[in-house]
Write a structure and sequence with these properties.
Helix content is 25%, strand content 31%. It is built from 6 helices and 17 strands. The strands form 5 sheets. Strands 6-7-5-4-8-9-17-16 form an 8-stranded mixed sheet, sandwiched between helices. A 3-stranded antiparallel sheet has the order 1-2-3. α3 packs parallel to α4 and α5 crosses α6. The chain is globular, with a radius of gyration of 19 Å. Bound molecules: zinc ion. The site of zinc ion (ZN) has 8 residues, from loops. The site of zinc ion has 8 residues, from loops.
Length: 254
Amino acid sequence: MISQYTTKVKKSFKYLSLLNHPSNKGFCPICNQKTLFVEYGSWLRDQYKCIKCNSIPRHRALINSIKLFVPNYKQTLIHESSPGSRSSDYLKNECQGYSCSQYFPDVTPGQVHQGFRCESLENLTFPDASFDLFITQDVFEHVLHPDQAFGEIARVLKPGGMHIFTMPWYPELKHSRQRAAIEDSEIKYLEEAIYHGNPISNQGSLVTYDWGSDFVDYVYKHSGMSTTIHLHVDRSLGLDAKYLEVFISQKSYE
Ligand SMILES: [Zn+2]
């Protein structure tokens, strides 16, 4: 009885504290139920959360786009590079054909380390045409050789397969801006160093590119894949934030 009462009081406090924050009712594409989306701060990209699963807008945008563009996604072979979000958990739980990998600099690609297969996006060890879908979430602003990475993803996708991904995109930039490069195994900074949070490294991840309006051409040049940019803003699905675009690059069927 006492513990039930304590749980109830705690829940009441949780809901009372929400009164301080703007919120709206809606349906969450990730926990698949009616929910409340709460703005815990003004930076919606990280602070506009589903009260039930704690997902943020880009997680919901990715899953919403997958449902829209690949209705049979639960029956596909999916690989995700660098998982670690509510959307990764969703795909893992819902899709039998889901697998994932992380990159560890000191581990041979293809080997398992800390429960993850080690893979470098720039040199994947998978055979050609292995997957229907390849997923990356906020990864491509951190890759040192994105030309090779897009080429590799296209190689491991089946004909008609799709790379579905999120990343910050700056269409106001006419030309994408490289922020860092690697020369003789040393990082060379071309712009001020910026780091983003990384679930498997305390150092964070160095931002290597600010992708601009030429991004779609860049992907085509290095992979032959055509890219659709899908932006869906809809508060009833908890979709509202900066950099909410979902990119869908498709390998041709030929
Ligand atoms: Zn949710």
